[in-house]
Amino acid sequence: MCGIVGAVARHDVLDNLIDGLNRLEYRGYDSAGVALVCDDKRVQRLRAVGKVAVLEEEISVKRPVGHIGVAHTRWATHGQPSVRNCHPHMSGTDLALVHNGIIENHTELRTELEADGYEFTSDTDTEVIVHLIHRVLPDSNTLRDAVASAVERLEGAYAIGVIHASSPDTIVAARHGSPLIIGLGDDGNYLASDQMALSSITDRFIYLEEGDLAEIQVDRILIHSRQGEVANRQVHRFSPGALSIDKGHYNHFMHKEIHEQARVMTDVLEGRLAEAHVPDAVFGVDAAALFDRAQHIQIIACGTSYHAGMVARYWLEEHAGIPCQVEIASEYRYRTPAVLPHTLIVTVSQSGETADTLAALRNLKDHPNCCGSLSICNVAGSSLIRESDLCLLTHAGPEIGVASTKAFTSQLVAFQLLTAVVGRRHAMTPQAERGLVLQLRELPALVQHVLLLDERIRNHAGTFADKNHTLFLGRGVHYPIAMEGALKLKEISYIHAEAYAAGELKHGPLALVDEEMPVVALVPVDGLFDKMKSNLQEVQARKGSMLLIASENACLEDLKPKSVIRLPDVPEFLAPVIYTIPLQLLSYHVALIKGTNVDQPRNLAKAVTVE
Ligand code: F6R
Q1: 307 C-alpha to center of ligand 1: Å?
Q2: pTM of the prediction?
Q3: Helices (H), 48-194
Q4: What percent of the chain has a predicted confidence (pLDDT) above 90?
Q5: Is residue 2 flagged as an active site residue?
Q6: CA spacing 20 to 30 A to 143: which of 73, 167, 275, 502?
Q7: CA of 394 to the centre of ligand 1 (A)
Q8: Tell me, what's the pLDDT at 27?
Q9: Rounded to whole angstroms, how far apart are CA atoms 521 and 497?
Q10: Which of these CATH numbers, 3.10.330.20, 3.40.50.10490, 3.40.50.12780, 1.10.760.10, describes 253-450?
Q11: CATH label, 3-237, candidates 3.60.20.10, 3.90.580.10, 3.40.50.970, 3.40.50.1360
């Protein structure tokens, strides 16, 4: 997704801007650009298609020097990846702007601006913003006033940074629907889409709120709220470790993040388990009263986070005894749902900035039948957290690989904690809760144990690398884990992968099974073990080539499988976390063989802040 960096300092800021762009690479992008008000008071802009390194090559030929500038990585939405569509966009020679988000009424604004004589030099929705600002500048007292008046015309989502040659000491920033933060430095102040961009410069951040407009200068930051009042926004501090984005000895962030999961299990549980229960306060000071009121849970999320929600539904209904529904946010936000009385909304998101999830929360939270909202999220200070009544941080640490791994397993653990606190109020006995707490304490060691299978799983990857399709099968709580396995494989290896609840095979997908169709099946020994085996016999009878990921005590002789990865026999409640890990490793090794870009798969972005 697009990334913004801005800097105003006592020193030349070009290196800060480029460093910030490099740190935003993980979000996914196809082109990059930078503009500075140079010391001769002229705006200089450089743009390039491809990686930030290509932009750096251009800079090495013609290096602009200035104390104020904005920069951008673009992920194409309107218009192809090309230099003309790269940000910053300019109006005239003095005004430059970077933008994240989508302007929905850009066609109408473009027609209006063209009628006023503005010539467009790109196919983007963004360019209307810079011309709108340019048009009102002559009648405005300050650049801030011009931006304030221009953004009133915009429909859609935006986070913008604006510089002007006549205001060489001020960046003006505004946000509505897309995240933006200010970083406070010793020698200047900074702007970015997320704190990761500024992690080498500062550990002090201000999160702009919806509708905020900020003037950022070297030693002064002035923020106005949507209502036009001066706003005092809190400064948040993060330890440098929390912002570390180093690959260590791994070749890819994804591989490193898979291997961090034992530590992540420890971190997400840290301070959250009492002797025999999960304290309500883990979810915030008002949690107890809110959980007391909840009679129904509505989970809303996208992608991998949605799969975590699907797993949670099995737990919340079976162990906690509370009715639960799960829905994809992009669907939920446009439905008119019949909301059950006393519904607790639970949103799940790694980034906390996913546009559809945020919109669904905003639509639902004022519904008279909603008793409150909880977000399960990995990014402190994100929009989702700020707009929810309660939050549970998943403490997975920065996740740079676009394919979500450690964030997913930490979300599962967050839901296990939720199952305990909600369950206590419904169907879960104190003994059951105690048992659950004891099991959770074992989780980090079990995850560590499964990670040792990395090499063995690599040996199975070759079977998949030359295939065009794969089926993933699971039953019960392992059906969404199969879905997650299929999503991982398709997003990083570009192999078409579908997941089915194994009982559905005979209702259609069995027609696909032959020697050429690899089938990955999750076979824990649980209440559905015999059913799963019958389904696998159906595959075997069609000569499907199976890779079974099975419990070490699963008796599989009658299936005569060629490929089995044995996992430790773990309690049913922990199994979804444990069975996820081989699937992550499998997709990683298949992608390595195929030579795809593991950390930044084509067409995908890390934080999907637009619809
Ligand atoms: C897949 C993946 C995506 C995200 C989805 C939601 O590996 O990462 O499917 O899960 O875009 O993102 P968050 O969790 O940030 O809301």
Answers
A1: 10
A2: 0.80
A3: 52-61, 106-115, 127-136, 143-151
A4: 83
A5: yes
A6: 73
A7: 14
A8: 74
A9: 13
A10: 3.40.50.10490
A11: 3.60.20.10
